[in-house]
């Protein structure tokens, strides 16, 4: 890139920044569109290595404006980061006016220009809105130019931008560590920009660039840049890059000593028969990649044999996933051979020789039933392999019954997870009892076939995810489902969509029964719910049950009728302020109505509050920050098992380890002197002046008495505006 062009792009960016900056005058006196609260948009950034920014207290108010851009400001758990802008598709179903768009753009400009605590930014794509496209271009070229604090950038670009300016902005970001770039444009400047970034960045560790490359010059430029890079640890690539320059890809994979995770996705426009062959060939020479994933790639004779060599010889692979549209393609010569998929059988011996592989995920179509039986025997005595996941699509599900019988005979069920879809009513007990994930659509006209399955749901021990769409539902089937939800101790995720004309009985007791099952359940942490039947009584009790749940940490809205969904959300809102479990809410953008907005935002704010506790507690545990808000968050998390479980997910450790870590760190803040110091009441320790009557003072309380007080007292109970540092009471 020439210097003159770079200078011109930089000058243009500065001019654009001045124009966008002029819009800030529109923010004076701005009030939240939902709360009506006045926002102080000029709040300066007060974040440091050990203190949070003061803007955290007003995140809900900022999000009332960011919703017009489909963005949400959230707290992050990572070390050295505090806030992130996350794209939430269709978070506000109402189409914003141009004034609202300009106002939101000004808020975003102010945030990114003045708050160094924003470490992650997602830029949404809005092809149907020219105003949004113009805004996104302004953000890229004006706001992010020269940024030295954003570490993660997620770009979804399907609108035309000035490519050279985009390249200049990307290269000007000084601390970029993660880049997700989804580009539908065929502009050749995008691979050039990514290639230049790979050659110049000293901080980039993760790159997700899965856009198709249809020119070998662009593929060669990218692969040579990858080969020269020494910082990348995680790479997602489109298979077209391999198809255009296979030898270069093998050279890169052979030479890299830094890459740990490789993911290759299919190219919709460029079907490559050889991608897996080149991947496996490169992996034979690679000594660092421990996680390999391929999606939608073709598998045939030569690639099968190369894959067998890789599996047998690799000493670093820990995880292999081959999924999606994976096909076993056979040549004419192979079709003349004996036995279907005879080539893939060679993987069995290769896997048995591998002593480092821990996780493998394969499509059921990769082997015959006899080969699966042999694999289960290998698995039962394999020293390192911990879990094998078998994935079956709708057309492959019929094979699972026989495979399940073989698994039952061999007896290594605890090391096998089965994932299957069933869009009809063709369920059988023989199939289902080994499923860890089951997706099914049930119509009650086939009640005689499916009823035995639901009567036996409690006997499906591996089942952790159940997704049901019940059409034309009726009382008996629904009562069985509620009974199962009440009693299961293994189900972690439940998606329930109730569709059709409604009950075939006049009873509405089902709603109460289902809501009670949510309250009794202690295992479901992720709930998706939708009701698109004509409303009757009882929808609010479902929402109330979700709000009162001590375990549900993620709530997803499926398909609702407007009035039914509004009743449900009102039920959730009624008790949500006392909820300390819900950390995430996800909206179905195809089923959202304008009259839901106020209720939905209230629920979202509670989820953000709870996830904020977890994020700050994680930073306290990682010893990234020791300020009062982080200590108060740990205090809160320590009292709520659901937040401890969410913390374990954030830290990628077991719940038991998270609980142990929380309790150990809590000891450092539970004492009287530590509590009062963090609360801002004293500088070091509590010292009370003696009373004339000689009665005991606060500093006379022993540890046992203070522990009783602490059961009812949290750091957040001390009003922030009253916290003043003093050394005496």
UniProtKB/TrEMBL annotation:
Classification via InterPro entries: LRR-containing_regulator, LRR_dom_sf
Keywords: Repeat
Keyword flag Repeat: yes
Record has Lipoprotein as a keyword: no
Protein name as it appears in the record: Nlr family card domain protein
Organism: Rhipicephalus sanguineus (Brown dog tick)
